[in-house]
Write a structure and sequence with these properties.
This protein is mostly helical. The chain has helices spanning 3-36, 40-65, 73-116, 151-163, 170-180, 183-189, 196-210, and strands spanning 123-125, 138-140. 70% of the residues lie in helices and 3% in strands. The protein has a two-stranded antiparallel sheet with strand order 1-2. Pfam families: DUF1759 (PF03564).
Length: 213
């Protein structure tokens, strides 16, 4: 192996080692919260952080796979499988926990909110994905991006119902946003993973592309 490739491999392995340590600590935190806490918000935040860190780990695994020699490939695959299996176990447990806690607490919150607010919108949306915790059921208008002139109306309603809703965190807001954009608008933000940081990016992308006169 060339010296440059060897140096890159060692650097990438070191980065992965640190990321694996973070994933392990995140998993331990998640396990502790599931076993000892009744606060689904904390579990949800740890759950999203774990997904984000595992995505980083997967990217590093791919980089290393392209750099190692064939003799090291078997050990590499076995080690990766160990982390992947543990991630899947705790991802599933976190989703089940959040689902069980949310089924009552979030429904009550949604009912209280809807008693005070009338949303004159078009389509009904509840959970945006079977992989995400159930969110309060809201009635939201969809936006395809085909008719740019309809964006101001769409955004005004989404802003009132979701964007300025203090009871929702940015991950929840992003979940709702992803559920109501279709066609060109959906393609514009498809590459953004479901994180609080990416919600602001998604809003800016949509406003820059469809909201300008």
């Amino acid at each position: 192996m060339e010296a440059a490739n060897q140096a890159l491999l060692e650097r990438t392995k070191k980065t992965r080692s640190v990321t694996r340590s973070i994933v392990t600590k995140q998993t331990n935190k998640l396990e502790s919260e599931i076993n000892n806490s009744v606060d689904k918000t904390i579990v949800y935040e740890l759950y999203m952080q774990l997904i984000s860190k595992f995505e980083e780990l997967v990217k590093l695994d791919k980089e290393i796979k392209g750099l190692i020699d064939i003799d090291s490939l078997e050990d590499e695959i076995l080690t990766r499988k160990e982390y992947k299996d543990k991630f899947i176990i705790w991802k599933t447990r976190a989703e089940r926990y959040i689902e069980s806690v949310s089924s009552i607490a979030i429904r009550n919150s949604a009912e209280t909110q809807l008693q005070n607010v009338t949303l004159p919108l078009n389509s009904s949306v509840s959970s945006v994905s079977t992989n995400q915790p159930r969110l309060p059921k809201l009635t939201l208008e969809s936006f395809s991006g085909k008719d740019i002139g309809s964006f101001p109306s769409f955004w005004a309603r989404f802003k009132s119902a979701v964007h300025e809703n203090s009871s929702l965190n940015d991950v929840d807001k992003f979940s709702y946003l992803k559920s109501v954009v279709t066609s060109d608008a959906e393609l514009a933000i498809r590459g953004l993973t479901l994180t609080s940081e990416n919600y602001a990016k998604a809003v800016k992308i949509l406003e820059d592309r469809f909201g300008r006169q």
